[in-house]
Write a structure and sequence with these properties.
about 170 residues, 6 helices, alpha+beta, two-stranded antiparallel sheet
Length: about 170
């Protein structure tokens, strides 16, 4: 592969960041871009570094966009799960040569489709990772209650303040 110009690198990073924000795996991004996985990995690290060094409001806008997307996917997953629990109509037809035709309709109750629950759970997991909550510690009180420690609460409050200050200016 010929050496890319700075202009090409910048354009490639825009495309890679779009694929990355869509949740595409690095292997797929590499195939789509015609790069090795190593190149894609280095470009994503450069993109993440640029995001981290950019003004905080831009980073918060990116987080807000991702949170909104996760919210939409989770809402759709829950709605699909609820629909999957609705009774199913089963139509049968009997009869035939010389016999009177007879159609019956029965309703069968269903358990919800667990694939939609897995999608909702994945949204929760990604939201936790996006907000950095998996790294937070908790304290257990003497009566067995689990509470976030003060540092964790302050970190969450700062993040929530930054989210509301950053706004949803899409």
């Amino acid at each position: 592969m010929a050496r890319r110009t700075n202009k090409q690198i910048a354009a490639d990073r825009v495309t890679i960041s779009e694929y990355y924000l869509q949740g595409k795996p690095q292997r797929e991004i590499a195939e789509l871009m015609g790069f090795s996985i190593g190149v894609v990995n280095r470009e994503i690290e450069a993109i993440r570094q640029a995001w981290a060094e950019s003004p905080l409001i831009n980073f918060n806008e990116a987080i807000n966009r991702e949170l909104a997307r996760l919210d939409l996917i989770e809402r759709e997953a829950w709605a699909a799960y609820e629909r999957s629990k609705e009774p199913r109509e089963i139509r049968t037809q009997s009869g035939g040569e010389g016999l009177p035709a007879r159609a019956t309709i029965s309703r069968q109750n269903q358990n919800g489709d667990e694939k939609y629950l897995r999608i909702a759970l994945e949204c929760v997991d990604r939201r936790i990772k996006l907000l950095g909550l998996e790294k937070l510690s908790v304290d257990v009180t003497s009566n067995g209650e689990t509470v976030l420690n003060a540092d964790v609460l302050h970190q969450i409050m700062r993040h929530m303040d930054a989210r509301t200050d950053g706004g949803d200016s899409d």
